[in-house]
Amino acid sequence: MSKFEEKVIQKIMERAECGKKKYGVTMERKDLSVVEWMVHLQEELMDAAVYLERLIDDCSCPLHGTEPESGCLYCRRL
Asked: Per residue in 11-20, pLDDT tens?
């Protein structure tokens, strides 16, 4: 494995421990239906879409949007 996979594994382990402390259960819990699991996933994906929108906005030129212009000093820093 590369260092990137190892970092992801470490983060998953840390997140699992945090979730266990916060919610008192693991992903092996049996109290949720398939639809409830799908709703949880949908909520996580909506959060991810909001984070991505924020990052796109942060990386966009206020003059040219997401399409950089070669002569623009702001676009060159992106």
From this structure: 999 999 999 9
Integer Cα distance of 7 and 48 in angstroms: 19
CA distances from 27 to 23, 40, 59, 63 (A): 10, 12, 35, 46
Cα–Cα distance, 53 to 36 (Å, whole number): 26
CA distance 38 to 57: 28
> pTM for the whole thing?
0.71
Q: Identify the residue whose tokens are 């992106």.
A: 78
DSSP 24: S
- Cα-Cα-Cα-Cα torsion 71, 75, 76, 78, nearest 10 degrees, comes to -170
